[in-house]
Amino acid sequence: MTAAPAIEAQGLTITRSGATVINDASFVINRGDYVGMVGPNGGGKTTLLQALLGVIPAAGGSIRLFGRDKKTFSDWERIAYVAQDAINFDASFPLTVRELTGLGRITRDRLGRPLRQEDWHAVDEALGLMEMDDLADRRIGRLSGGQKQRVFVAKALVRDPEVLLLDEPVTGVDADTQKRFYKKLSDLNASHGLTIVIVSHDLAAVFCRMSKVMCVNRDVYIADITDDLEPNEILREVYGDHFHFVFHRHECTGVFADE
After folding, report:
1. What would be the CATH architecture of the domain defined by 5-255?
2. What is the model's pTM?
3. Which of 12, 3, 11 is nearest to 49 (CA)?
4. Alpha-carbon distance 194 to 34, whole Å?
5. Measured by CB atoms within 10 angstroms of the end CB, which terminus of the chain is less buried, N or C?
6. Given the DSSP bridges, would you call strands 79-82 and 5-16 parallel, antiparallel or unpaired?
7. Is there a contact between 189 and 198 (Cβ–Cβ < 8 Å)?
């Protein structure tokens, strides 16, 4: 059975301040894909995500979401986004984990209305998926960086989206926490069919955990991650001919293996 596209770009060009950031990109992300977006700093990864979300306009080309042109797409609850700086807020922020996650259930047409029982059930389910239910009543400012990241993913998941976009969600988080975070995303992808696109600098996690790699540095290259894929061949397209990534697939066993 042919997979149905979730996100399609054709000839996509994005400019900022007169400079081309993304040049003539064409790619397809299918429903159920788990995509690692990689590339050097300043290569346009965040800009590309923002263009897919309609935050910034495209200078040329087209974007289709679930088969519909982005210009006419309106069902944005099907797509969730966790920004790069999501956890950077005042530590005295008064909401609890459960209350913050509940904000994800508030839509434009429900502003000012109290959450219903079904909403709180969805909140508890999302916190359970991210293994944060035991901290539901703790103030968000008292959490570690890794715990905050999981709460913001829960807040994104609480609307039951079909696509989840994450921009460097584990920056500054310790290695063990990163491992558990990537494992949790793998579980969501496998058990719920959630389409995930995550910006990451952890190349080992990308090639061990994910189904596709998208390399971005003004130009965009995408490939299925299979046993036949030689990582350096695609990585050098954006990091340069001098780049050499030492990777052995057996390293996934024991480091990123399912627990």
Report:
1. 3-Layer(aba) Sandwich (3.40)
2. 0.89
3. 12
4. 8
5. N
6. unpaired
7. no
